[in-house]
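Internal tracking record. Fields below are filled automatically when a chain is submitted to the structure queue. Please do not edit lines marked as system-generated. If the sequence contains nonstandard residues, flag them in the REMARKS field before resubmitting.
Queue: standard
Priority: normal
Entity type: single polypeptide chain
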Amino acid sequence: MAYKSSGSSSHPPKPAPSRDALSPPELRWNKDGQPVAADFDDPYFSASHGLEETRHVFLQNNGIPERWNTHQGPFHIVETGFGTGLNFLATWQAFKQFNAKHPSTKHPSTKHPSTKHPSTKQPPTKQNSLWLHFTSIEKYPLSKEQLSRALSIWPELSDLAKTLVKRYPPITPGFHTLSWPEEKVTLTLIFADIKDAAKQLSAPVHAWYLDGFAPYKNPDMWADELFTDIRRVSRESHYRGVTSTFATYTVAGVARRGMRGAGFNVERRIGFGKKYEMQAGHYMAFSGPEINPLNYQTPWSSEAPTLKPAAKILIAGAGLAGCTTARALAERGYQIHVFDPDGIANGASGNVQGGLYVKLAAGDSATHTDFYRQAYLHAVERVAEILTDDSKGKSWDDCGVLQISWSEKETQRQQNFMARQQPPESLIYPTTVEQNQAASGNALSNSSLYFPKAGWVAPADFCHALLDHPNITFYTQAIERFEADNDGVTAIVNKTNLHADGLIIATAFKAKELLGEQVHLPTKRIRGQMSYLDPSNLPNAQSVLCARSYLAPALNGRLCLGATYNLNDDNTELRDSDHQTNIDHLEEFGPEWATAAEAVKVIGGRVSFRCTTPDYLPLIGPVVDSKLFVERFKQITRNAKQIPSTTMPWLPRVWLNIGHGSRGLASSPLCAEILAAQISGDAPPVSNIVKDALSPSRFIIRALIRSKLPEELQELVEKT
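SYSTEM-GENERATED OUTPUT FOLLOWS
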């Protein structure tokens, strides 16, 4: 809370500190050990008792926790100004206390996911579906060290504070989502200016914590744009039972006028301590022009129908996309049935080892960079959570990744990236040839970019662990076809009708087979061949090395090297020529590897096929009937600004999670959370911009606007 006055040894050495693109604020510490923001000359919380003030102002005056008694599903709180995190921790503590009085009844977990016939009936999991989602916007995020020191004054919050500090993200712009499924708590931190961040909110907000430094000291925060966005995502009870409330410590007129303009009644209420008054209220029916409930200004950005907690959902595909999605939904109480005739992680997700990192380019669009940076950070946390320390070195290892500047072009790319992005050292930093020795264990030819939290993962182990949940059942069978309407989905499995509330297709390029001509999917299939090498006569790699191919540290007597990249190649057989291509890339790692390559021994390999999209972003979200879409919106081919006010022809109760290409380890966990949020009606863990950029309908929209429809859909336009 920002209180307002009245008104590892294997890692290479880090370079000298530099000012990041987003830097922590300058703090002073008063005689009581409390932080004071130097820029605003304001303390972060009350000198009398900041924790009690938080409970009074924000919890009590938003009706928390009383409102949780009757609420089901996600409960979304948005805070303006994360500060030290005191408001969040106080709310989390209250949530824990509430759940202790209202325990969930859960079935015991099994060691491994079961393989049963689809007709087997599983007893539903009886549990309270209440989930706390706390979103906080902060322009001046504290460093991890500052956060830890500031929260040390509250002993009763020490356990929660340590948990928060441990997971606190690197200070990089954009969305950072931390989740504690066992606690049913999600924290989304948005490091950005409030004017930009508020525009990226989409899910309805149940309670507003209007915090931030005093209006007369920080007028930019309390601008008209903020209240416009508050109005946009606030609701009355008739909308899914959502009633938006707000509370704020300040009685300033700008806050009162702004909230009234946003459609709230505003009451002066008893303040805390020396502050005699505060303001609070709830959203009322707004008499002016209504704003589209979940933003946006185009029908295709509107919200698809959601599913109630404990609904039965089928998932086609048990690769990384399917398994991460299954786990994200199971943790929210949904009953998940996963189908894959090839077993768990036997497609593109079946490599023995995969490198967990992303290749960020300076020339990428902001959306592209934001997504993959956030996805990578989330994946690192998720892998460590699911696989745990017990399996470290066996199923995963955060041994670091060195992206080697193996060519002049790559060197220039890395330099441009660092100059433009200025990432914090906890995310990535440049290293010299000498520094690489400490990380790799052997001499490398060139400088590198080093990812200290990255490493490798055994995808199959990760997928099996993800499916180890009492709400998930796995079947070694295929969903052959399906029919969907507003009442549910009927899937054909082994000539048997299987009914469910929803269907998620996570079968990569095979999704076209299930969806047929009804849905336009411009995916492409890319062959990749891995080579397994005998490590006996090769250097000992201590970190993942990445040039044109990547190489992970030896595991179970073999080194994994690859993979090739062959477009329009459907050959499933191992080829000696592709093994040689991988071996030729060893010289890019350094002289020791170049010499050893002459005597390298191939002991096996694997062929799989990546599913990619034209813009190299995944396809995540509800599915649109392409032909119906063209029929309804064909007039925009003549005028892109003349968008008909009609509804989107969503394919009922069907969602998609495909197109991860070679980045599935990094992108799948976050995409699973995005999809789970869409299905449950929760706040998405990404911005509106990123969510729309991942939408499966984006290509048909672009094609229609540009009058470049595929032949079968162009006929619909020509008929008019």
